[in-house]
Design goal:
There is one protein chain. This protein is an alpha/beta fold. It contains 4 helices and 8 strands; from the N terminus they run αββαββββββαα. It has a domain at 25-100 and 143-188: Double Stranded RNA Binding Domain, CATH 3.30.160.670. It has helices at 2-20, 59-75, 170-174, 177-188; strands at 25-30, 41-44, 79-80, 89-107, 111-113, 129-131, 134-152, 158-168. The strands form 2 sheets. The chain has a 6-stranded mixed beta sheet. The relative contact order is 0.21.
């Protein structure tokens, strides 16, 4: 019996934590055919650094994201060089956001009243009334996405594609640097 209670408590804690957290969802894909263990140097794939400029991102934020990606690779022990042809791998990224709408519809709790006569709250029937309805909630939010790509310079093949998506709050939109640094380090740690 105690194991059932423990299992139920663990499920409740996991569910509550999952609903309450606003953590970034991070994933990646690696090219297993290319050995990256000898990589020491990296460079930007293009001078603009970003693969395709998004209208959602201002130039100041774009520079912050570029700097954050550079620092994350440097923190992993790679050296940044200017010449992409002399580097072991080249990097680039894309970033953007989109507005999303989430609609939830749940059965409303039973509206039941018990008693003699007309029933509780004026309902008809011997023991009162019972009614059902739906509770519907509509939430609009902005989801941001960052993708970082790495290419092998010798073979010109993609080596790594890492991405993160995160629901953005208004506080994060006003001061995004902490979120950017956190998301970039999570993605680059998978390289």
């Amino acid at each position: 019996m105690n194991s059932i209670k423990l299992l139920i408590m663990a499920a409740i804690v996991a569910f509550t934590t999952g609903c309450a957290s606003n953590a970034a969802k991070v994933d990646f894909d690696k090219n297993k055919d290319i050995d990256t263990s000898n990589y020491k140097t990296f460079a930007w794939l293009t001078k603009t650094r970003i693969m395709a400029a998004s209208i959602d991102v201002n130039p100041v934020l774009e520079a912050r994201i570029s700097d954050s990606i550079e620092q994350a690779f440097i923190a992993k022990g790679y050296q940044l060089i200017d010449d992409a042809e002399a580097a072991d791998f080249a990097i680039s990224y894309t970033v953007g956001s989109r507005d999303k709408i989430k609609v939830n519809s749940y059965p409303a709790s039973y509206n039941a009243g018990f008693g003699w006569g007309r029933g509780y709250y004026g309902g008809r029937g011997y023991y009162g009334s019972m009614g059902m309805g739906n509770d519907t909630s509509v939430r609009q939010y902005t989801e941001g996405k960052l993708a970082i790509d790495a290419y092998d310079v010798k073979t010109h093949q993609p080596v790594f594609h890492g991405w993160a998506t995160k629901r953005l709050t208004s506080d994060e939109s006003e001061s995004p640097i902490n979120v950017v640094n956190d998301v970039v380090s999570q993605v680059v740690n998978n390289f």
